[in-house]
Amino acid sequence: MRFLLIIPTVFILVTTVFWLMRATGDPITAALGGKLTAAQLAERVHAAGYDRPILVQYVEYLGNVFRGDFGTTLSDNRPVLEVLTTYGTATLELTVYAVIVALVLGIPLGMVAAYFRDRWPDAVLRVWAIVAYATPVFFAGLLLKLVFSVGLGWLPVAGRVSTSGEIAIRRAGGTSGFMLIDAIRTGDPAVVGDVLQHAALPATALGLLTAGVFLRLVRTNMIGTLGREYVGAARSRGVRERRLVTSHAWRPALIPIITVVGLQIALLLVGAVLTETTFEWRGLGFQLAQYLQARDFVAVQGIVALIAVVVAVTNFLVDVIAALVDPRVRY
Amino acid sequence: MAEVLSTGPVGTAAAAPSHDPWYRRLPVVRQLRQAVGLQRGMLVAGLTLTVLFVLVAVLAPLLAPYGYSQLRSGDVVFGAQQPPSAEHWLGTTVGGYDVLSRVVYGAQTALLVVVAGIIASFVLGVLLGLLAGYLGGWVDRVLVLVADAIYAFPSLLLAILGAIVISKGQSNLWGGIGATALSITVVFIPQYLRVVRAEVLRVKGEAFVDAARVIGTRNGRIMTRHVLRNSVRTLPLIVTLNASESILTLAGLGFLGFGIEPTQAAEWGYDLQRSIADVTSGIWWTSVFPGVAIVLVALGVTLMGESLNDLADPRLRSRVRSTTSPAVEPVEAEPVETVETTPEAGA
């Protein structure tokens, strides 16, 4: 029964976004107020139907959203849904890279910290994890850029692909929106390398934060499982310490990771908004910042509502998976 | 959210012996005495950074060499993007402001936002949690449902919505601070609500509450006098964890251009946004210093919260001085329990 809660949750989120956005006025006045005369403004507002009772607009909005119509942006006159699908893939790609960076760094380092509990490797890693948490992703991004792009000149400063790579991808007819898949489809290793080089810094900036969270989580749970009887039993059978960590204790320690990955998706999406701005990675976040600056609140409303729903659905799926994996979790 | 998550951080440190003088039983002081080794180091470092931050914020007008929106001293214009020099220790920004002064005044803005946001969310969250836990029934169900939905909402996005609602995205000092503080309030209310609710549910079943009801005490008095006082033990932890998240949310808002106008107040996130282009041309001082300021403040508060959190969890407390507080291994350690106490990283 608990699973049905996803429906009211999505409903509450969409409703909250609508009422918050419309609490103070209509988007046309917000975008164009001061640029047009009062009469012109009233005409535009009337044409768009924003002068009708707010409840009527709300019901209409819910109906439209239900049919997948999120409205049309004011600044560049595109359907919000098209914006979402065009740029959503770029954000998804960045988020996937970041999760990979986080898992590859966070889980082994967390095991190391647990294994060396209260000794210096543990101390260093835990302080590092806290520093990673305290560093805003955009500042981490700027620092990485300063060092690796500007200082050392190893990696590109911004964007998802260089111009020549983009031409090659266009020629090969890549349209999936996932740069790496399109690059692989061209069959040219240089293009693939180019795309990966562009992804390296944004993925690291975004993934470091989550790596710190994973590190601490794995450490805590690993310490818990290392104290269990079956680990003690294995130890008394003469299993070596290293093997205890790598083959006995880690599996139960990873169950909470599943739950936390879900919670982290929310943060990664928000982090992606900021990282994309830092690296001019043309995804949803970059567009959101653009629309915010253009005061295009129809677009903002659509993007924010979409991200909120994606997060809610992810959390829901994570709950389901956690229940399947861990028999102790019951609803 | 999974049912296991709603229990909140449980198992606070063993109660201090009651013969200790009152000042030793204060939240932070007690843990400071309890901590050993690395945990003590982290707690001390966190406290030092936090105190330093508050001092800089309060004394900003005395410490900063120039005003945060000052462009010239006397007849001499500062100039844009000047490297660090004797006049401008940390250089000047692309807008021609003194970086050091803006970093110092930025502490003031950050402190105002965090304090306002935390007080508001604390009061409202505790109140709602008390109502939900004590009254139960549909009030409880509605409050928990809404809190869960908001909890799932990415905090920065909620903050963006808040900023649009309050100031239509055009922020003067109080509009910007109000918008950010209010957004932070909304984001954190669910956390206080969940924790207090769980505690209230536990306390409500205790015999002394029944006793109070039997002698005819009114609901309001039972709630405030008997239940509330016994339900807020774990909150100092959440306050510290939230403080760092609100610093990062404020910076994130500023970075997206929703911060406070440079003429109204200094804000680190805004300055960082303005420095993106500088970085590409190798101008490092406009981004590094405000960024380091954010990291240090968030680090200080996080270190403090982290070590308090670890000290409250017997499984994580360092085991060196085990005579005062024997690290009892819980009979059935539930790894999932730690999920909530792991601070979710902010922007």
Q: Mind explaining what this structure looks like?
A:
The complex is a heterodimer of chains A (331) and B (347). Chain A contains 14 helices and no strands. Chain A has 331 residues and is mainly α. Chain A has two domains: 3-66, no CATH class; 86-150 and 202-329, Orthogonal Bundle (MetI-like fold), CATH 1.10.3720.10. Chain A is globular, with a radius of gyration of 24 Å. Chain B is an all-alpha fold and 347 residues long. Chain B has a single domain (41-320), classed as Orthogonal Bundle (MetI-like fold), CATH 1.10.3720. Chain B has a two-stranded antiparallel sheet with strand order 1-2. In chain B, a hairpin with a 2-residue loop joins strand 1 (72-73) and strand 2 (76-77). Chain B starts with 26 loop residues before the first helix and ends in a 6-residue tail after the last helix.
Number of structural units classed as domains of chain A: 2
Instruction: Look at the helices and sheets of chain B and give the structural class.
Output: mainly alpha
Query: Which second-level CATH architecture of chain B applies?
Result: Orthogonal Bundle
Largest sheet of chain B: 2 strands, antiparallel
State the secondary-structure class of chain A: mainly alpha
Q: What series of H and E elements makes up the topology of chain A?
A: HHHHHHHHHHHHHH
Biggest sheet of chain B, strands in spatial order? 1-2
The arrangement of helices and strands of chain B along the chain is: HHHEEHHHHHHHHHHH
CATH superfamily of chain B: MetI-like
Share of residues in strands of chain A: under 5%
Number of strands of chain B: 2
What is the overall number of helices of chain B?
14
CATH architecture of the largest domain in chain A: Orthogonal Bundle
Shape descriptor of chain A reads globular
Largest interface (CB < 8 Å): A-B, 88 and 73 residues
